[in-house]
Structures
1.
Amino acid sequence: MARNREKKPQRPKALPPKGFRDYFGAEVAQRNDMLNAITSVYHRYGFDALESSGVETVEALGKFLPDVDRPNEGVFAWQDEDDTWMALRYDLTAPLARVYAQNRNDLPTPYRRYATGPVWRNEKPGPGRYRQFYQCDADTVGTASMAADAEICSLLSDTLETVGIPRGDYIVRVNNRKVLNGLLETLGLAGEGATVSSDDILRTVDKYDKVGEEGVRQLLTTGRTDASGAEIDGVGLTLEQANIVLKILLSKGANNVETIANLRDAIAGSDEGGKGVDELEEIANLCAAQGYGEDRIVIDPSVVRGLGYYTGPVYEAELTFEILDEKGRKRQFGSVAGGGRYDDLVKRFTGQAVPATGVSIGVDRLLAALREKGRIDAQSKGPVVVTVMDRDRMGDYQAMVSELRNAGIRAEVYLGNPKNFGNQLKYADKRESPVAVIEGGDEKERGVVQIKDLALGARLSAEIETTEEWKAQPAQMEIKRGDLVDEVRKMIARAEGAV
Amino acid sequence: MARNREKKPQRPKALPPKGFRDYFGAEVAQRNDMLNAITSVYHRYGFDALESSGVETVEALGKFLPDVDRPNEGVFAWQDEDDTWMALRYDLTAPLARVYAQNRNDLPTPYRRYATGPVWRNEKPGPGRYRQFYQCDADTVGTASMAADAEICSLLSDTLETVGIPRGDYIVRVNNRKVLNGLLETLGLAGEGATVSSDDILRTVDKYDKVGEEGVRQLLTTGRTDASGAEIDGVGLTLEQANIVLKILLSKGANNVETIANLRDAIAGSDEGGKGVDELEEIANLCAAQGYGEDRIVIDPSVVRGLGYYTGPVYEAELTFEILDEKGRKRQFGSVAGGGRYDDLVKRFTGQAVPATGVSIGVDRLLAALREKGRIDAQSKGPVVVTVMDRDRMGDYQAMVSELRNAGIRAEVYLGNPKNFGNQLKYADKRESPVAVIEGGDEKERGVVQIKDLALGARLSAEIETTEEWKAQPAQMEIKRGDLVDEVRKMIARAEGAV
């Protein structure tokens, strides 16, 4: 056995690394189309493209990984020949901070930029969780104006509608970190001397969607037993403190005016909290002035956003239509984009605080949503396949293909072994080809070709019931060689109309 | 001093890693437009998109790096948590071989695929040489037919014309590795028992453009003293052998028929060489049948292509117009794409040889060529800038911007500190803004706004000579608030017409 194994030639495994995957055909084209649609909105809003490299120095990336539980992990890193540590970017915001710090004297201020591309996370892969995925971001650097935040919210709204999410099927929800943080400071629960971690409080509040009001109350105080029977430790607030936190969380009223009044009542005299509510009110007014009603952008005090670096307004775009989850239960599709204001990222490089705000769209989740809504033509358009009846006349077939392509019709000649004609039709089938072109020696002599409607051929027995229909829609027809382009175009149009 | 240094806070350097760079605004958009144009041609030819991840296992990538002098180096690699070595892909062909081997039972055969994206090389960076750059490839896997190679050549020709290289400004040159390799084998200069390296011979022949016929003769035999006085070793052929090799290299005739006749004469009875010439003749005939004349695709025995893994036809797209190099000397722009047939890449995984052929376009070089030819609008179109005269009326200004954007006009409100109006116009200038919109309290009361043609304002003193012209083309005008969209659109159109 051992000797046998040694003899075996060692072949590499034909697999991507763990947690990586490939995308084929229509998947790639659909994502590309969606990214083009998104960036066209970003561009119309005055944002300029930036493409930084996939690789950054580890020191430039810093320790701002979204997963705050493991701030030092999560990146793919290695050492350059001169011992500098390099890493693949884990998001598009950290590179923006580096680029802005590097070019701040040449870039306009404020600097509106968009970026799109893959990011990498060195995390444990799971079902649907990959270690490389796309982001598509828009950020405004260099202004503290709430108008920048309001603009990001309207940008998000316009973008979702442009890619095909109808109004009413999404909502952009806005909150402000200062509200809860200010309250916690006033209560002595954050800042110096705090006995509990305000991160823990935020994380607990973020579970509201899952565990509800009473669940959050338990988790904020003494703990809770979850559905599986496991004991989960509480954060350690008193019941009174927990109720004050929950009052913020439950401030959402029937409209923005009511919500803002509730918040003012709930912040318990905190200056910072009051500032946060003022900012929310300003954003609400700016959105209204631009014609974005509360059916599109709404103040919602239950929005948290996990990312540690946000310092002011935070926003989240949620898709509100229902889908069936893997267990067949109805649930809302959920979040497809999020962002907020982060005022300290550039400071790491320059020592000066530079206010900034921005949003990141989860490209793959948004694509999944569009497929769910039937807004993406999931079917790829296969090419016309010119079959090869006579191997020596490849030039004739190539000429046909050229004519079709020059007329803008996607077309290819069969390049496999032409011996078995059935294999050629099977190939055309696999390619989802609408039309096959056939020219044997006999046809060549008579100056004709056969064209075959492959989609119709497949549907014939299922749909066509009378002989008249059959005659009216022949799956295969003989045409003059000179009419190839016109007749193929007609057949494709007929096939598309029939679908 | 030392104590002082210790006190200084350690800030990260705001720089990308050595050999990496950022791309801004129009550069990104232009590349994106060009990639979309290229892939639309690939798609029309029946090629399907494939996007594999940027990361592969080192064992899957193999040792096929183009730089044959250092086959083991040149990649950025690191170990995964389970000790698997991973690396950034160095081209798009090695991942294709892995993907095809992995999915060969599900993919159509032959499999035409295109791919585009960044690749990474761990090489010493230099001026204009970056360690991340774009490639855009088309390959056909699973067919030995020369029709696949001819198709790649016509694809290349169509692609160049589609992106804006006019016919006559480029040439696709085709050769076949079998010709020279076959000859070398017949001469005992390749294969088992050869005393010289056939790679060295290929590399020397590849210098023909630089050193000319006599230079290649010297380098193939005893060596040569270059312009700087340095002695360069010869490969060690006899003069007779060198002349036989040179005869191949110089076989190009007045047309393909003559070239092929010359080659048949030059291969000195080599079977393999004869096969190579047959293949070239077949490609020439297929291209002619498709209407691609020798002004677009031509047989040229001097094409070598450095890559070690080519086994048959090789091709290269060269731009033939002249540019001035950095020293002000005229030279041809040179190669922008290349490829060929490689039959052994998939075999590494499966043990079975899978014939394949394909091409890679050097995206950044082609972009440079288009800029050189003035085929790309190098100027970016800046947004309309709505200035802020009254900080408290941000909602009014945001509403204007919304109207403009909804009408498809790129527009933004000034988000910096509005105190100094001069700074707002400087900002608009930096943004290459065509039009600034101004609405002070007085205008607001009267229901009007001022719009300012910024390009015209900048040109006024230089171009406009009479007062009549000045009056006919005022750089700033007062319009009704309700006419904002129409009047801005007119002003932009006028500005574009005037350029």
2.
Amino acid sequence: MSTQPYPAFFSCYNQLDTPFLFVDKQKFINNLTRLRHSVESFGTELRPHFKTVKSLHALPYLLPDKTAPITVSTVKEAELLASEGYSNIIYAVGICENKLPRLRDLIGRGIAVRVLLDSKEQARFLTRFCLLNQCTISALIEIDCDGHRGGLTPDSPDLIEIAQLLHQGTVELEGVLAHAGESYHCYDPVSLRRAADNEVRTTLDAAQRIRSAGISCNMVSIGSTPTAHSYHNLNGITEVRAGAYCFFDLVMAGTGSCKIDDIAASIVTTVIGHNTERGWLLIDAGWMALSADRGTAHQPKDCGFGLVTLSNGELVEHLQVTSVNQEHGIITAMNGCSINFDAFPIGCRLHILPNHACATASMHQHYHVFDTQAQSYDIWTRIQGW
Amino acid sequence: MSTQPYPAFFSCYNQLDTPFLFVDKQKFINNLTRLRHSVESFGTELRPHFKTVKSLHALPYLLPDKTAPITVSTVKEAELLASEGYSNIIYAVGICENKLPRLRDLIGRGIAVRVLLDSKEQARFLTRFCLLNQCTISALIEIDCDGHRGGLTPDSPDLIEIAQLLHQGTVELEGVLAHAGESYHCYDPVSLRRAADNEVRTTLDAAQRIRSAGISCNMVSIGSTPTAHSYHNLNGITEVRAGAYCFFDLVMAGTGSCKIDDIAASIVTTVIGHNTERGWLLIDAGWMALSADRGTAHQPKDCGFGLVTLSNGELVEHLQVTSVNQEHGIITAMNGCSINFDAFPIGCRLHILPNHACATASMHQHYHVFDTQAQSYDIWTRIQGW
């Protein structure tokens, strides 16, 4: 990672071939600081989800303390974080048996990697694996707080049975974990607050039920970017997880979790054609650069495949990317407006704000990180694969 | 690329951590052969589009003759193909000025890289660039045959003006190029045939108009995977381009361009959870492995985020992936059916057929290529970035 001082700053931007992923470093840092302060003000720990930024170069900003907690979505992330010295990891996808050998190797190196489960089958193969391999793996039981995906409701009979299975075996039951994934469909502060309160209450209920059965449950982990910005009481919650908050995106702006101006990642693209008859600007960013994510499709404001800003970050209110192919995008004027083609000549650069930062970032091997304050430029490499 | 003989074949499959992209090599080769034979039977050349497979390891099958024509969607592809000795390339995305220096360097090495344009602005900066750099760049004018994206209609006054601008400058006007992108919305042989005929006729009309103005137009290039399988007369067409045909996918099956059994690429995933109450199988393949492409959403048969097969390729008729997050997918039974959870225990492997092979393949660094006939296994690496 080489930091090039001004005047390389501007020439780098212009010399980079489009499309590329631009990170506004100051916005990125502000987003990190905002949530960390908020969560820590409740006396609770933040466990950032690495899945969004997925770059070792981002770690000095995301999590400077290597003993601090972090969440991952793949074993590969866990392995690379471990190689950087990070030692407190949750692999937050339901565990399957064939991923255990790689995790055992990490645990053998002294890395605390906790796994997630919500079934007796998983509890059984985990116990069996630990016994056969003479190792201890810590596990969290996934709690379903809103019907989003996996997990058990606090009143599920399986909850206590799984806790007992683990408790009797060589698996250490560390606690419970919930993710209020349905909060992505909240669009006002009242529903967000309700989703946040529900996530807290449901997860605490589950922890309480386990403890009532005489089994310890130290960790009570919750989080999603929308709820993480909407808590008002975290008593009993030991940690909050969130990922998309580092970059933010149009889906998050749609939930009210950020302003559009907080979005720290955008795709820089070049206008490669005009279709004056149909009112289209053709750009060299298609789904290969933007992703095909349509996360705002069901929000009150549908942003197509992304909104448009100028290089200085100024939103071009009436434009959006309405269609994408592999390496082509089409920008159209919305709400009865028309495009002033002279203002967007062939060759000019625009930025496209992503619907979903995790998805857009995943399409890129590198982030081009510009610090407008320090006038510096870095390249951050992204982790790929599983 | 190491070819491991049987019995490594089966153990490789089982040892690979999910999710991964599985290529059925025999189906891949059959798909390549089928279209090549069909196009060549018309006395016309096939110019495969590299954008789908994007792997140098695939070249011995896709295009064994290095002097034969190939299409690319990025300058990076052109550079890597050139480094492998391929010398007859079309960069089939409207050209912008800042991509010219890299193309000039390729042309200087004796690689014929043709660029695409549809505006006088592009003709002017291309002419200026060639003059300043004392080089010759060959260009094709993009023809719009169905309102899909870029290009000029044959009756556009700009067509002749651009041809004249190029003809007078140091840019060599090589011909015209069209892509019947709207044929992706055809769902029966009659509409496909109509789209194919229209692509042929429109492009020939444009070539004829240019020739009538006293300017040569040698190359008449057309193609899209659906139309490429539906021509009945290619007189006057010098080449056909197609990309997705190598893997095929559910969108192409929906157009009738292939059978579901022809699909050569699938994502191998593990069942990581059961939600018996909601009727969900949770799998470890989300949009990160499958892509968020919803290309079948507007087809008569909407396949969600993909259809499900067993490891042996057998389609599980009533199942589809109905929801994806980053590393999670949810499989649901459709049409009033219910899931037999005992048939899909936690830990079992399934294959997900992609909506759009280009998009799904783009999510992977490697393809795991299994030849069921030769009982061999290869890893093919994919080109990434721009």
